[in-house]
Amino acid sequence: MEDEKRVDSLQASFEGIYMDYSRQNVTAKTMELLMDLAEEARVLDKFKEMAQGKKINSTEGRAVMHMALRADKGDPFSVDGKDVVGPVHEVLGKIKAFSDKVRSGAHKGATGKALTNVVAVGIGGSYLGAEFVAEALSTGPAAEGAKGRTLRFLANVDPVAVERSLRGLDPETTLVVVISKTFTTAETMLNARTLRKWIVDALGEKAVPLHMIACSATPDKVKDFGIDVNNMFTFWNWVGGRYSVSSAVGVMPLSLHYGFETIQQFLKGARSVDRHLLTAPPRKNLPLLMGLLGVWNSTFKGHATRAIACYAQSMLKFAPHIQQVDMESNGKSVAIDGTKLPFETGEINFGEPGTNGQHSFYQLFHQGRVVPMDFIGFIKSNFPIDNTKIGEVVTNHDELMSNFFAQPDALAYGKGPEELKKEVSANCGNTSLHSVSDHTASFCALLCLGQQNDSNAPHLLSGNP
């Protein structure tokens, strides 16, 4: 892999995101064959069919239209001949109006106090993506919009999780967002009833419509629960749970916390990746390249795991979200025609922010198993600290990024010193993704790259996306 010419041919970029896959265990011929596989499987054509509203989820007879959730007004997305972008923007307008009222204090709680605390109740795709974005924005410029506000997520039915989500909160100033498409998800509804009792015990039954709202597609059940259906923010059966962060599921709690204008930038970043996926040529198409490399490592090379190393503390919740997106999308051993696939599919995903992971599980990679990795980093920090003024040789961010650039080389090329016990194995293939700075659109573009990347494998391996 130590061939300087590789970097020129095994790299791609898009709107400030640079992808270097020259350290992957591939040759030019490998990539040529993988491109042939993508063409034979009609991967990019299938993404275009997805955008056209074709029911590519054939087992459930559903369209897969998460790209419509971040489309511009007038973009041609339809299902069964009916425009879906108009309804999406109607819901976005409703979210903006409501979140603005809450943030301005126009929508008050039962005792007349402003609602400054939000608890979002959901599980799986109903919280993982939103939690990632909330964490990612919490230390950047967007954090200014959240001053004096609290956003927490409640997913687990463990009573400790309930206690932690409510600790220090006052029912008088708390708004609960119940997130469930069907309003029947067992864990979510048990937690919702628990929080409903918390509100009623403190403020009375009349407080429920003022302190609880819903993201759901079942108004009857929402009404029966005691929530005002005017405060129900809908999404559709063509929104898969793992992709729902850009629907009301994510946009509602995030807008309440950061403001709708900030979340518009989030949607803009996702939209740019969608357009790149649909229009970029195959060899420069980042989601396609990432998907091909994932299939190469897992199905062809037999590596069952993938590590995600984000050298940015703001990306703390990225790996857990991608775990769900990838392992739910690709955790299927049956082809779309119902026959059992003759090979293993999917990867086991895990990760930890660098440099924490280096002191946790990298030892196994350096001297044990081959585990393909994705490295993610940012050239600039939102919080630069100039330690050189106090005699340090490097700044915190320079130290972080030195590791970001050094670890991929060490894993790919290895080191063979005199003592075997100090030997560092080679050929641990990896991809590096880096952007200039960790701003809202960059976070969202990286999130969307992860989502669209993980949609490739089902198309390549005849699975159900």
TrEMBL record:
An MF annotation (GO) of this entry: glucose-6-phosphate isomerase activity
Pathway assignment: Carbohydrate degradation; glycolysis; D-glyceraldehyde 3-phosphate and glycerone phosphate from D-glucose: step 2/4
Superkingdom classification of source: Eukaryota
One cellular-component annotation, GO: cytosol
CDD domains, per the entry: SIS_PGI_1, SIS_PGI_2
Gene3D superfamilies documented for this protein: Glucose-6-phosphate isomerase like protein, domain 1
InterPro entries noted in UniProt: G6P_Isomerase (IPR001672), Phosphoglucose_isomerase_CS (IPR018189), SIS_dom_sf (IPR046348), SIS_PGI_1 (IPR035476), SIS_PGI_2 (IPR035482)
Keywords: Cytoplasm, Gluconeogenesis, Glycolysis, Isomerase
Listed EC numbers: 5.3.1.9
Family the UniProt entry places it in: Belongs to the GPI family.
Name this polypeptide is given: Glucose-6-phosphate isomerase
Taxonomy of the source species: Eukaryota, Sar, Rhizaria, Cercozoa, Chlorarachniophyceae
